[in-house]
Write the structure tokens for this entry.
Amino acid sequence: MYDEHLSALLTRIAAQDRAAFGDFYSAAAPKLFGLLIRILGTRAEAEDALQEVFTRIWLRAARFSPERGSAMAWAVALARNHAIDLIRARKPAHFGDDDDVATVADPAPRAEVQMIARGEAARIHHCLGRLDPSVAIAVRGAYLSGHSYSDLALAANVPLNTMRTWLRRGLISLKDCMAQ
């Protein structure tokens, strides 16, 4: 049902329907933005890439075919391919001689930083385990996987406002648990 809605929006976008484009943006932007951040690594670059991806969606909506796949998969493929193009276009870092390379700091975190990070990850995992399972799934989906609130509400078969409440309460519970 959700993908049928997105497919219908793409059909309307192909006919230059700006309202459909706004609806598609609202539905797809959070997931695409999360994907772009994961691939590109920086929020600023992901924001610029997201703008370009939606320009491409506007221009190429007529190329979408529901017989070949879902609307979200099509949009994700556009975003992924654009991100890969951006990575390929980056200029490689240039180092002078071998002495310059020897003075570059090791980017890997030190052992004590890694231990602290593992401890914090264990605490977060413990605190997520204390949440109601439905809320924990929603929190992981929204804040670790980048799913939109509306996608999560559809998947959990609950109203959007219920999902918002679950996420707000889940974050408050996590904050309290982490503060202990």
DSSP finds nine helices and no strands in the chain.
